[in-house]
Amino acid sequence: RVHGGTDLAHKMVVWRALSQVVRFPLLKSSAPWTSKTFSTSSNVLTDTFQRHHSYLRISLTERCNLRCQYCMPEEGVDLTADSKMLTREETIRLAKLFVSVGVNKIRLTGGEPLVRKDIVEIAQELGAIPGLKTLAMTTNAITLKRKLPALHAAGLNLLNISLDTLVPAKFSFITRRLGFERVMEAIETALAMGYDPVKVNCVVMKNVNDDELCDFVEFTKERNVEVRFIEYMPFDDNGWNDRRMVPYQEMVSIIKQKYPTIERVSDAANDTSKAWKVPGYKGKVGFISSMTDHFCNSCNRLRLTADGNLKVCLFGASEISLRDAMRSGSTDDELLQVIGAAVRRKKAAHAGMHELASTKNRPMIKIGG
User: Fold this and answer.
1) Please, which pLDDT band fits residue 220 given cuts at 50, 70 and 90?
2) Which residue of 63, 95, 187, 321 sits 20 to 30 Å from the alpha carbon of 368, by its own alpha carbon?
């Protein structure tokens, strides 16, 4: 059962993992722990605030073919050694484990997930997991057009494409790379293939692209897209300050000046985006207001980093290594014990934006967008 170590060494790895997320000796019990200790519908993925986590975001890589200003510095970041990254087999094992206890949506992120040479094979294996309803991806779409047919056939049924400007020259300024035309072609290809809707993620920064809010609204007129305006968020090495952030209500006010009939429409359960629509337009826009009007009370998301750490909150500094637990020989039951303990330590809400700006966290590219 234990690979590369003794039973004692294995138990110490599991105990170390548990000690990072619990304050009391969970392993002291009159009865042995098994996966049946927790019911599929509740305990493992339900925190102390009765939030059930049915959505897992899996980062497949720390590598990216762009250098977006709000994500990482121009010179890039120090990459984790390949030996410390999750293998494909480890990623699939964890995905199956999470689905077995209630996850029904998985999103592939990065870095840029499409830089993985085995991305289609990963999608095929994930798409075949019984009980998984949604397989999504967030991508910069630089290489999406030629890979999308195979990904669609593999089961990828939801797409988020990052696009922060509709001006080619500004695209190069923000991303520090070329590729605007390829992203636009990928959006049109996804629409033609029936993705409904294609979600477009736009990080809004003052004096950079806030003058394009209405242009993005107009982009929804003849296209079934949902443009999601994201408040600029603080992460390590991304140069955040509150003077560069455009608050949700300010964005709405700017848009209403040109589109006074734009109206609030209903959101799906656990949606992070507040949806608005111009009557008669095919698409709609939304606002992800993590900084000024958070949605922590309905959060159902967990994150798995490319190097195998579980993060129960995007802005939380605490992490737990499922990679180390697996490589020490942990059974699925033992992994579920570690996962359940981490979920139960999730806080009611993240800190305010100024506190987050001074709190140590990973760069966004090493968390998973």
Assistant:
1) very high
2) 187
User: pLDDT confidence of 14, banded at 50, 70, 90?
Assistant: low
In the 8-state DSSP scheme, what is residue 276?
E
Integer CA distances (angstroms), 368 to 49, 227, 264, 317, 324, in order: 25, 20, 29, 14, 19
More confident residue, 347 or 4: 347
- Among 63-77, 175-189, 201-215, 323-337, the minimum mean pLDDT is found in 63-77
Residues 6+ away with beta carbon under 8 Å from 214: 254, 255, 258, 259
Q: What is the pLDDT of residue 35?
A: 42
Residue 35: Cβ within 10 Å count:
19
Model confidence at 284: pLDDT above 90: yes
HEC readout, 151-187: HHHHCCCEEEEECCCCCHHHHHHHHCCCCHHHHHHHH
Tokens of residue 45, six digits: 């993925």
Helix (H, G, I), strand (E, B) or coil at 162: strand
Q: How does 6-15 read in b/e, with b if 16+ C-beta sit within 10 Å? A: eeeebbebbe
What are the structure tokens assigned to 339, written together?
Answer: 């996962």
Answer whether 362's CB lies under 8 Å from 76's CB: no
> From CA 193, how far away is CA 190, in angstroms rounded?
5
